[in-house]
Write a structure and sequence with these properties.
By secondary structure, the protein is α/β, with parallel strands linked by helices. It contains 8 helices and 9 strands. It has one domain: Spore Coat Polysaccharide Biosynthesis Protein SpsA, Chain A (Alpha-Beta Complex), CATH 3.90.550. The strands form 2 sheets. Strands 3-2-1-4-7-5-8 form a 7-stranded mixed β-sheet.
């Protein structure tokens, strides 16, 4: 990854795959929210082989917004590689990334940003700590809680929510954490957190307001994807 002086204070990274129905609304909401607490920023949409015209919508919006950047991949890379590409292209001193569905309330973003600036390390949105407010299907909540208990036992990292796609850290730390990252799927977020803690940096969980907006829920299917999740998890554990 590139190592250069930051030109912006904050880079917002949005990995996107077939998000034509909500990408415009997402960018507009993020742009409005960030302006309230940061004047030097960029929004990077790392579009990941979409077939529904997501890239065309972002390209059109970028023509009228100098703070919006489109990274287009003609083929599907996976969330992990999409975020790595965005980090590599970013110009911010700090970076934040989130899911396009904006399940996490954007009002929580400045809280994570302030935590990273004051404490360093990584700040992550957490749905499973005191003060959080979550609206989610019961079955997915049960899967999430079970997954997080298993990860805590396996890695002893003390983190309660490894999957919330709402994180902030310095670009320098993100580059270091992702340097040897292998997972590009569901385990990617967990890998980042555990790696950060193993490197000796703090990971602070910040309670968030979270609401499952997508009618069909997450694109991750716990049953269908469980084998890959377990494979990535065990491979990472053996390589520690």
């Amino acid at each position: 990854m590139k190592n250069r002086l930051p030109q912006k204070e904050l880079s917002i990274l949005l990995p996107a795959f077939n998000e034509a129905s909500q990408i415009r609304r997402c960018i507009e909401a993020v742009d409005a929210a960030v302006k309230k607490f940061c004047k030097s920023y960029e929004i990077i949409v790392s579009e990941d082989g979409s077939s529904d015209g997501t890239d065309k919508i972002v390209a059109e919006m970028a023509e009228g917004n100098p703070d919006l950047v489109l990274l287009h991949s003609p083929t599907r890379l996976g969330k992990g590689k999409a975020i790595k590409n965005a980090v590599n292209a970013s110009n911010g001193k700090y970076i934040a990334f989130m899911d396009v569905d904006l399940a996490t309330d954007l009002a929580c973003l400045p809280k994570l940003y302030d935590v990273v600036k004051s404490r360093g390390g990584m700040a992550i949105g957490s749905r499973h700590v005191k003060g959080s407010n979550v609206q989610r299907h019961a079955k997915r909540t049960l899967f999430s809680l079970s997954y997080n208990v298993f990860v805590r036992l396996l890695f002893l990292d003390g983190i309660h929510d490894h999957q919330c796609g709402f994180k902030t850290m310095s670009r320098t730390l993100a580059t270091a954490v992702l340097a040897n990252s292998r997972s590009d799927g569901y385990f990617f977020d967990t890998e980042m957190i555990v790696t950060c803690k193993k490197m000796g940096y703090p990971v602070t969980e910040v309670p968030v307001n979270w609401c499952e907006h997508n009618k069909n829920g997450s694109k991750v299917n716990p049953v269908r994807d469980s084998k890959r999740i377990m494979r990535d998890m065990l491979a990472f554990r053996l390589n520690l």
